[in-house]
Amino acid sequence: MSADSGGKPGRTQAPFGRRLCEVADSRPAGGYRIFTLIDEDGPSPGPGQFYMLAAHPDWAAEGGRPYLPRAISHARVSGNPAGGQRLDFLIDEVGPGTSRLAAMSPGDACWITGPFGGRFSLPRQLNPKAAGAVLVGGGIGIAPMAVLRRELVDRGIPSRSLLGFRDREHSGGIDELFGCEETRLAFEDGSSGHKGYVTDLLLQILEGDDSGSAAVYSCGPPAMLEAVRRICLDRGIPVELALESPMACGYGACFGCAVPKADGGYMRLCIDGPVVRGDEIATAMAGEPAVG
Ligand SMILES: Cc1cc2nc3c(=O)[nH]c(=O)nc-3n(C[C@H](O)[C@H](O)[C@H](O)COP(=O)(O)OP(=O)(O)OC[C@H]3O[C@@H](n4cnc5c(N)ncnc54)[C@H](O)[C@@H]3O)c2cc1C
Ligand code: FES
């Protein structure tokens, strides 16, 4: 039985109902925060899948907001010595929901549902001629990229990671979630690595590669995702993007997360995404903010 009615292959299906998980750790990561939940009963999520989270108690304490749970991607999954799994989340405090989640301390509790949505494909599924993968992450979007990279390492599939940030403050999590090997950095303010956009690094790599053997994966701010999408589509390179849009339920019931498809109509990002192929969507910049 599952709460996920979506039909994408390879996804881990969410159990029915929400689970109350203990907060095992919470620590600063640059301008962000990483916290760890112990999920005693949940299935192992795939890279790109996400959870709906609500701290317990006092989720709706301040003037009713945050009322709805918040969609958050897992940044790492590992075994818990006492049973179950440890789920790490990378949080950017942008409003009442993420601030409440970031304020949780070890021993606190958090309601979770999921994992929801579909996962990233493997490189040979995305491009049968793929020799490896190029991962392009930006800001808080490095979280799902870190999970995908770890899976590719475990499977012995070569990958290169390109990570872009506005400045040091917005680069939290790279040291903990990414190793140094095969990772190149871009900072818009020039504080480290390449000075400029991560898409500059992507263009450099693609110029040196046979584009017929490339498979690109990306998660980050909408403008970055759209630039990555255009670069790849213009060169006929298969690309998968993990998108964001406002999510109220996470399992297909509210239609709050709808984004326009390339061939007309809409898809619900929570069940048809959040991972989409670049040529499936009209734009990566469709997710409008909502209040809930
Ligand atoms: C699949 C998925 C995975 C996500 N993973 C993470 C994650 O790993 N870590 C993380 O910190 N956040 C993640 N988010 C984003 C997070 O769920 C939203 O930013 C959420 O709205 C934050 O709630 P809040 O109450 O803190 O802020 P809100 O009050 O909801 O919003 C705060 C500010 O962000 C703006 N905003 C909210 N949503 C959007 C949007 N979709 N597009 C543009 N602007 C928006 C609002 O207008 C406001 O200015 C993810 C979202 C999705 C859909
Ligand atoms: S979040 Fe409700 S339908 Fe997608």
Describe this structure in words.
The chain has helices at residues 96-102, 123-126, 142-154, 174-177, 198-208, 222-235, 269-272; strands spanning 19-29, 32-39, 50-56, 70-79, 85-91, 109-116, 133-138, 159-165, 183-187, 194-195, 216-219, 239-242, 258-260, 266-268, 275-277. The model is unreliable at 1-7 (pLDDT under 50). With 292 residues, the protein is α/β, with parallel strands linked by helices. It contains seven helices and 15 strands. A hairpin with a 5-residue loop joins strand 4 (70-79) and strand 5. Helix 5 packs parallel to helix 6 (222-235). A seven-stranded mixed sheet has the order 10-9-8-7-11-12-15, sandwiched between helices. Strands 1-2-5-4-3-6 form a six-stranded antiparallel beta barrel. The chain folds into two domains: 19-116, Beta Barrel (Elongation Factor Tu (Ef-tu), domain 3), CATH 2.40.30.10; 123-242, Nucleotide-binding domain of ferredoxin-NADP reductase (FNR) module (Rossmann fold).
Q: Which strand order does the major sheet show?
A: 10-9-8-7-11-12-15
The second-level CATH architecture of the largest domain is 3-Layer(aba) Sandwich
- Might you state the CATH topology name of the largest domain? Rossmann fold
Uncertain residue ranges = 1-7
Number of domains: 2
